[in-house]
Amino acid sequence: MTTEPAHDPRPAFVRALDQAEQQVAAVSPGELGKRTPCADYDVRALLGHVVSVLHKLERAGSGGDARGVPDVAEGIADDGWARAFAEARGEAERVWAGDGQLDRMVELPWATLRGRDALEAYTHEFTAHSWDLAHATGRLAELDPDLGARALEGFSKFAPPEERSEQGPFSPVVPVADDADVYTRLAAYLGRRP
Questions:
Q1: Predicted TM-score (pTM) of this structure
Q2: Domain limits, the chain
Q3: CATH of domain 10-160
Q4: Region 89-94 average pLDDT
Q5: 41 with 49: CB under 8 angstroms?
Q6: From its phi and psi, is residue 36 left (phi > 0), alpha (psi between -120 and 50) or beta?
């Protein structure tokens, strides 16, 4: 009897980071004050959040407590977001490069998961935040539809509608047309108003 090898989430994670990094690098200082579909986040705060998420992943992957990392990184210069993202990404990818990380239990601010499940969840988070940035800055045409489809499927497991309220990170599902593109459906599923 043979067993199937466990799924490695890192290739999709890298693609999601590539997409997010492209969106981060495209933001100009004049766009930092624009509103995003994320409640309470303008573009600057959302950039601070995605940088902070990378620091949380690095800390959790190193065996530390990611709850000690703030939700939004601050003190980054208006023209320093691309560099801050790239540096934090490098640290996170270095920590998660070893295969042993994937089956180790990691402590995240919202759950304790196997490493592979944590990376899968954060792949979907970076995909959703790429849409948030693209929506706020008018760069929607640059998004990878396969990542959007994966995130839509993944969030149906990680964030089922029946477990949500107005106070959580995901609002109730917003209705959209059946023929809406995958990112519109993803945003609506997460409670954003595309």
A1: 0.91
A2: 10-160
A3: 1.20.120.450
A4: 96
A5: yes
A6: beta
